[in-house]
# Entry
Amino acid sequence: MASLAGSSPVHAAPIVQAPALLSAHAQPISSRDRVYTADQTSNTVSVIDPSTNRVLGTKALGQPRLDQVLGPLDRSQVNVHGLGFSPNGRLLDVISITSGAAQLVRTADNRLARATSYVGRAPHEGFVSRDGRTLWVAVRGESHVSVLSVRTGRLLARIPTADGPSKVVFSPGGRLAYVNHVRASEVTVIRVRDRRVIHRIRGVAPRSSDEAISPDGRELWLGHPFDGKTSVVDARRFRTMAVLSTGPRTNHPNFVSKPDGLYAYVTVGGLNQTLVYRRGGAHPRLVKRIHNSGTAPHGIWPSPDNSRIYIALQKSDGVDVIDTATDTIIATLHVGQDPQALVYVAGAVPHGDGRSGLGRQGLHHRVQTFDVPIRGAVGAATVTVRAGDGLDLLDFAARGLPPRGDFTAYGVRADGSAAPLRQIKADGSGGVDEALVFTDFFGTYRRVALLPRSAQTPAQTVRAWVLAVRGWLCRLDGQHLP
# Structure
C-alpha cells in the first residue's frame, strides 16, 4: 500500500485542536488556522482563512461529479465526504465514499502527502489518533474500522464492528476510540493500545451518521438523520443518558464552552436550523434555535477559543460563521459544491500564505433551492439545482409523503408546459433523502412540480394543474408567469 505521510514530521509542538474548557490560555483565531469543507459534488476540499473569513480556493481531488461518473476513465476520487486531521494540524485526512479512498493532505501547501490508500467499500469518516501515528477509518460497507500507518500508509489492522460503522472519535487522552453506526443501535468502544473492543453501548437511537465527543471527555453526542434524534451518551460510564427529538435530517453535533456554562450545537438539515443545548447530563436543555442562512446545515466545528462556530450548508454551497456569544450569524461564505464534513484546524499553516496547490474548481457556480408543489398529497419537498457544464444537477428531498408513495417529478417551462424528469419513490417513513437528475434546467425550466404517479398522466392534465398553481409560483418569484 502506498505511503500516506509526507516529509513533514507528524510529531511537533503541541497545538490545541479541540475546543477546550474556556480559559485565559485559549488560542485566539489566527491567520495560521484553516477551516476546511469536504465538497461531495465538486469533489474538492474548500480552504478558508478564519481570521478574514475568506475562501482561499479549493483542493481538487476528483473531477466534478458528472464528468467523473459518466466519463470513460476513472482517474480520481468520487464523493469527497469525510474530514479529520492530525493533532499537530500538519495533515488533513480526506475520505471519499464512492472511490473508497483515504488521503492525507499537507495543510502547509495543500499537496497530497504521498499516494492514496483504498480502504474498502463506502468509507465514511476518518480521524488521526491522538499520538499522530495511525489513521482510523470507519468503513460502512464492510463493517470494520481500518487502521492505517500515517508514516507508510500500510494497513495495520481491521477491527470488526457492528453493521455500518460511520465515524471514529477518540477520548481526549487518546486511550479509547468510539465508533457509531448507521445500521446498528450501538456505540462500539475500542481500546486504542491493543485495538480490542471492550464495550458496546446500547440504548442509542438507530441509524447514527455522525458523532462528537465533548472536550472534557464526559459526553458523546450522536446525530441520527433518518430518525430525527440525537443521543447523549455518558462516555466514561458507557451508558445512554438521553435521546432527544431534534428534527428531520439531524446531522452533526459539536461543543462550545461559554463563561456561563457548557453547550452542544446540533445541525438539523430538515429544519435549516442549528439547535443550541445547554449540557446537563441526562437533562440537556434547548436554549436557542439558530435559523441558518441557507439550506441543509451539515458539518460543524468551533474555533479553539470557542468564540466562533462554523457550519457547512450542504444544499446552499456555503458556510455560516456564528458568533457564539450572541449565537448570531456574522458571515456566510460561498464554498465548493455540496459541502458535507467541516473541520477547524489550528496552526495548519506555520509559514507562508497557504495558497499553494489551490484552484477554483467548484466555486462560483449557481445554486438555487426551490420549494416543490405536490399535487394531491401532504408533505413537503424541495429541489436544489446546481449549475454544471452543459447539464445541471437537480437534488430532490422530501418528507411527510405517503409511505412508499410513487411520484413523478416534472420540469415546468415558462409557458406552463411540463416534461417528466424522473420517477421518485418515498421510503417507508414517507421521506426522500436524495434523488438526482441531470438536465439543462436553468436553460429550459422555471420550476419543478411533483405529481403522484399513475398509469397515465396526460400532458394536458399536468399543464392544467401547473397553471392552477401559477399564483403560488408567482408569489415565490415575485413576478407574473406568461
